[in-house]
């Protein structure tokens, strides 16, 4: 019996391979591999999709975040509020520019920032809030923007896992001051390599990011007005992303259908807490991440021997792959734990990190594949309960 992978990009390529091949060959024949029409066209199409006036392509989601912070002139000594339950890039870029990430605990039911705690974490040094729309589920942007406006703070949306997600009918990445996207291959809109984009309605911010992504120059040539970086999206990736963008809404709808089937199959299974789409939001299910309630709920987060990890190993033996995003919250990572004189506890993030398991999720996933996943998970849990 074949194994079920956590995601399967080969199935997507079978559907759009001819279009992707033609787009790539057209770029190769053009001789224009950096910048040019392919990149500019994608930027225009992506801005239109998100609903912003500006879109600036760059070479990764990490660079998108970095460029956004630089464009806002956030400096050493400034604080940026963000979540401890995400990939390290979100906080890493804050540290990279010398500012301080201030971690705020999360909500257990959404895995996103607890906005009550965001309010309490604001100080005179806070310059920005960096929410993450984790696993494709949007943060309550209505409330977050109200908090930011009351304190004159910038909002940078980390939309790496949430392209196409909406809050109150508006796409994420077009609600805050800046939106940051990743086109890593496993994202809902994935390139065939690294890629990213920044979205904004502020032309000054957009111009600054375009300058910074190209070695601090505005019009090419050899005149530089800032210390920039090389963060250009290449034309091949832009051409591929143009093809994929046409299918994005279809794929997101398919992901919702996969999530709905999981909900139906697993809703009555003891010991599971299923993910929920927040009221007022429309998720895009980059991951289907549930919680496996531990037999020892106060166990310290660990990579070795907890209930979740044992279930995951048993699923693997049954031919079902799964992923753990993320096994150790950022405030407990060595790089941050060692820097903090008195590390704060974020108990919800610490508990969730010990319980989460992401099941296979990709648009082309067949109902019979999901049935295998669901039956295998039920068997694992019943074996452990026996």
UniProtKB/TrEMBL annotation:
Family matches, as InterPro entries: DegT/StrS_aminotransferase, PyrdxlP-dep_Trfase, PyrdxlP-dep_Trfase_major, PyrdxlP-dep_Trfase_small
SUPFAM superfamilies named among the record's database cross-references: PLP-dependent transferases
Organism, as annotated: Stenomitos frigidus AS-A4
Designated name of the protein: DegT/DnrJ/EryC1/StrS family aminotransferase
GO molecular function annotations of the record: transaminase activity
PANTHER family, sorted: 3-OXO-GLUCOSE-6-PHOSPHATE:GLUTAMATE AMINOTRANSFERASE, TRANSAMINASE
Taxonomic superkingdom: Bacteria
Coiled coil start-end: none
Keywords: Aminotransferase, Pyridoxal phosphate, Transferase
UniProt keyword Transferase present: yes
Keyword hit for Transferase: yes
CDD domains: AHBA_syn (cd00616)
Family recorded in the similarity comment: Belongs to the DegT/DnrJ/EryC1 family.
